[in-house]
Amino acid sequence: MKINGLLIGALVLAASQAVALPEDANGNGTYSMDEMVAAFPELTADDFAEIDANSDGEVDSVEYADAIAAEIIAE
């Protein structure tokens, strides 16, 4: 029982430290400029272009995590 309690505590802690993603308003699994600006009002077009590594006009979860790691956006 003690191990289960520790495991549950660790999982709760890990979940609380997970990266919060912007709202995916259209449900397509990526984030548009508008969706990113809704979450990060200070985000510029140049910032978005830097985050959008493959230049497809959308930010996927990997690009989003990379942007946080590069401190382009804050958690």
UniProtKB/TrEMBL annotation:
It comes from the Bacteria. Gene3D superfamilies: EF-hand (1.10.238.10). The keyword Transferase does not apply. PROSITE patterns: EF_HAND_1 (PS00018). Keywords: Signal. It comes from Marimonas arenosa. This is EF-hand domain-containing protein. InterPro entries: EF-hand-dom_pair, EF_Hand_1_Ca_BS. Residues 1-20 form the signal peptide.
